Amino acid sequence: MMNEPLILAPVLQEKIWGGKKLHDVFGYDLPSDKTGEAWAISAHPNGPSTVKNGPYQGMTLAEVWDQHRDVFGNEKGEVFPLLTKILDAADDLSVQVHPDDQYGMEHEGELGKTECWYVIDADEGSEIIYGHHAQTKEELEQMILDGKWDALLRRIKVKEGDFFFVPSGTIHAIGGGITILETQQSSDTTYRVYDYDRKDEQGNTRELHVKQSVDVTTVPHIDPAPEMNSVKQGDATITTFVKTSFFDVYKWEVNGKANFVATAPYTLVSVLHGNGKLIVEAGEYELTKGTHLILPNDIKEWTIEGNLEIIASNA
């Protein structure tokens, strides 16, 4: 029986484009002033998070998945399917694209990557790259080789609270000055299309993957339009952002007290703003900004009290 939440310690990742917000806003201990990502709920070998409480304290999420599958309702699958990150883009991320599962397994030996972004914070005027203007694969490749970035790339202004669904095959980049929570498939395969000719501390440019990028990019670009909706539930507003075969993603805005009933074998929870508490049969657990946890299969209902903004997801 696992009737208490799995509270997880994030893994911090240094990036050429990272900054200090993950410390300044969320209080995480950073390895450097260029920390770009907190892998908050992760069983990926490149950064597995660790359980901080209960009978599995000290184990990685991957170990719990492998050895105690009942915690997750005996769900099938070799790997824990989801990965939740918080990204601090102090500078522009590279323009990139991810493969689908078939291409990812065939060429990289891991899942593809469909993902989505919730904008936690964004500087005035900041923007993302989301999609492209090429009409054929040949045109896409030629525009990349010719460096016609202004003509090729679609740019969109963003603000706090925006949500974007980014299926595999979508050319994309997070711009500088944006902090996001990303829900994605558990994959670390990224094909870099363009990196602004940046050099690292050793004076080297980062590798580009033009052939793979052309292979996997959806042409022409398709704008997905997830059907978002909001409902009241006690003192909470529950917004459904997206429901896909990879993940369902929700925002829970609690101002007071709200009761929840499980709709999936397990649920991933990330607190982005505010504080309060989670109440389950086993007891009460403090919720503060930057808390990440999984509600396991044995918890069928729970109560949240306080003033909180939470992103929740399930596979």
Automatic annotation (TrEMBL):
Catalyzed reactions per annotation: D-mannose 6-phosphate = D-fructose 6-phosphate
EC number: 5.3.1.8
Transmembrane segments: none
InterPro entries recorded: Carb_Metab_Reg_Kinase/Isom, Man6P_Isoase-1, Man6P_isomerase_Firm_short, MPI_cupin_dom, PMI_typeI_cat, RmlC-like_jellyroll, RmlC_Cupin_sf
N-terminal signal peptide: none
Active site, renumbered: 192
Domain Phosphomannose isomerase type I catalytic residue range list: 8-116
CDD domains according to UniProt: cupin_PMI_type_I_N_bac
Record-stated family: Belongs to the mannose-6-phosphate isomerase type 1 family.
Protein name, UniProt field: Mannose-6-phosphate isomerase
